[in-house]
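With this grant's support, we have settled on a layout for protein records. One resulting record is reproduced below.
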Amino acid sequence: MKEGIKITCCERCQIYWTCETKWCRGERQDEDICCSACNFYSECLRKLNKK
């Protein structure tokens, strides 16, 4: 992943509303960053690497 650029979680993901990683991060007030549990992670990563 390129430095300084982060992919945030998106509502297109089928597990967006029930993702345990997302909820744990929210409870700790961490950033809402996309992770490999996302259904679109590889697609988003590909787009990011093209930039």
